[in-house]
Amino acid sequence: MTAAVTEAPPRPSRVLHRSSRAVPPRAIGGHGIWLVEEGGREVIDASGGAAVSCLGHQHPRIVAAIQRQAGQLCYAHTGFFTNAPAEDLAEELVGAEPGGLAQAYFVAGGSEAVEAAIKLARQYAIETGQPARTRFIARRQSYHGNTLGALSAGGNAARKAPYAPLLSPAFSHVSPAFAYHGQHPGEDEAAYVARLADELEAEFQRLGPGNVAAFIAEPVVGATAGCVPAPAGYFRAVRAICDRHGALLILDEVMSGMGRTGTLHAWQQEGIAPDIQAIAKGLGGGYQPIGAVLVAGRVVEAIARGSGAFQHGHTYLSHALACAAALEVQRVIREEGLLENVVAMGERLQRRLAERFGNHHHVGDIRGRGLFRAIELVEDRAGRRPFDPALTLHARIKQEAFARGLACYPGGGTLDGVRGDHVLLAPPYIVAPEEIDLIVERLGEAVDAALA
Ligand code: PMP
């Protein structure tokens, strides 16, 4: 698969890159799960970027849909017009879906979707005569985006610290549902869930239940902790507490949604439905920047009965070209039955990871759902302590993997936002069995090299 590599001479860059020390290689093309670097080297996109590229690269149906739409209409401001791709995409997303989600609001990415979700919850409170509901409860070890409001909602200490105090007064944080670290020895799952529910209830009481607009959580925690699903019954308990106190439930499925965990929405595996849901990444599959907020009927109706206008607008709302790309992505997933492949390949990935790392002294946990899987690195399996006091293990794995033609998504701060390392894998839904095996083989070599 790998083409000959030619050395590219270093070039100056005027792009402000993530690292001011090194300009990354240029990606010049892609096909399927592979990305092509300038010079010809091919790299497996084993995390779809950051769980974005769900159909892989240069999928012919999506490219054709973009070309068709680009020839017809790219953009018409929503102050004047709606457009067919936006209307059809909304129909595709909430027309036949369970759970009472009634309308979709299209923005340009995940952080914008979370901002809109937060503001919708505030507006719902106001429209229903509950202006005191200004507070939000979120969880530690969560990531909700990089804009100031979304970053304030997130609970990852290290990511927030440089920008303190953010919008902190509106957000407080309870424990994540993270059994590997949070469940006490000897405590069964039901007791663990009950303890988390008690903590959430106590937080509502501390804030005053009538002051809370919403609870926000990722159904499967992504980048901050590495594909952590909640224990059974946790989200039913959360839903019950929100309902008891008249607060909304916002689910952030920006990373875990749109089929990534094997069902279209991760919450469908929890026996509950949210009032407001943020999606992005897999919505457009990376073909266009797009995010969305899916809104339950009761929120839509409250606004319609009240002021009649959602006071939140962005320039690129319902962008026609972005919506056309996302619509085709979602149709391909549905028409080609790709969620079945997500489940089958997800099981294979879990099995292969277990074979390769199941007895590895420094791999403590192998977890996730669908094609959203992670390994957690530890000092020793019994103690579950973070591996590396210098906090560089995940970065070394990333480097070793990339040198072997594998782009994966290692993260630090797994344990508490500061300490701990994991590697997240989120390959495209079209991944083939032998590609799963190759991903695990290369990751195995990279982990061993990083630990050597
Ligand atoms: N929420 C979650 C759960 C995410 O994983 C991310 C991105 N990693 C965001 C929100 C923010 O999305 P974006 O980067 O598109 O703004």
Which percent band covers the strand fraction? 15-25%
Distance between the termini: 28 Å
Count of DSSP helices?
A: 14
Q: Strand order, biggest sheet?
A: 4-12-11-10-7-5-6
Please indicate the count of domains.
2
CATH hierarchy: architecture of the largest domain: 3-Layer(aba) Sandwich
Oligomer description: single chain
> How would you sum up the global shape?
globular
* Number of E-state strands: 17
| Regions with little confidence, pLDDT below 50 for 5+ residues | none
Task: Give the fraction of residues assigned to helices.
Answer: 25-40%
CATH class of the largest domain: Alpha Beta
Average pLDDT over all residues: 94
From the alpha carbons, calculate the radius of gyration and give it in angstroms: 22 Å
CATH topology of the largest domain, what is it called? Aspartate Aminotransferase, domain 2
Bound molecules: 4'-deoxy-4'-aminopyridoxal-5'-phosphate
Biggest sheet: strands, sense, closure? 7 strands, mixed
Structural class: alpha/beta
Tell me the name of the CATH homologous superfamily of the largest domain. Type I PLP-dependent aspartate aminotransferase-like (Major domain)
